[in-house]
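notes to self, project folder thing:

trying the whole complex as one job this time. last attempt i did each chain seperately and stitching them together was a nightmare. two parts in total, labels are on each line so i dont mix them up again. if this works i'll redo the older ones the same way
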Amino acid sequence: MLIEEDFSRRKFIRYSVIGGAVVPLLSGIPAENEVYGGVYNTAKDMENLTELERIHIPKVTLPPVVEDGTQASIIVSLDHPMEEDHYIKSIQILNFNDPVVIKGKFFMTPMNGEAFISTQIRLAGGEGTVWVVAECNKHGKWAANRTVNVAAGGC
Amino acid sequence: MAKNIRAPRLRISRRIKKDQVFKIKVKFDHPSFTGLGIVDDETEPVFNRAIPVSFIRNMLVYYGEQLVSRFRMSSAISDDPLFTFKLKAVQEAPVKVVFVDNQGKRWETSKMIKFKK
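result (full assembly):
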């Protein structure tokens, strides 16, 4: 059987150009973000949160400037229900700029009534980003971050 | 940095109604430090293990007989931390908080939850 060859040099160049542009573009679009030990979701638009985002994005209270990096107060809360079949399993606090990245992971149950934790953490000097990852038993991991400037490092 | 370890203290409101979500504060004076030191302060900060690491590894919260929360921490939690978290008052029972440090030493504190009549 003779297969008619209609693949011209012009077509080859055209497909190469399109392929060369599309493949890197698609590979650069992350389906989901990745963080230490898992995949997480973030808010698409902080001004217009969807209902799912509103209940899952952690609310982080951390001062933008911390004088003493040995005692940085952090408060994390969520407006998420704490019911038997739908609740926040854990809240994790991280800072990738610090020598000790993971500060702590707080495991919760519906008995907590509200997803809330307040503590004090050590932060290294300079500018860094503190990440908080909350895990829902149904909807996976959700993250929020706060940029912080630490005057005197505490690690 | 706290030099001495002091037994943990638990603070709970006295006016708790059934099914109310209430706040619990636990203070534990424990010298938590990463043990890291900066090798050369003038150049890029490079850390090494300068002194032995010491920190609170776990905080376990029991309500009655049930384990309701477990907080796993690293050496990046501050000295003498004050933890605040919430519980739902479903029964009149003791709340017990157990701390375990990285050397396996244990401390605990508890308080009875009684509903306001």
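what i see at first glance: The radius of gyration of chain B is 18 Å.
need to look closer tmrw
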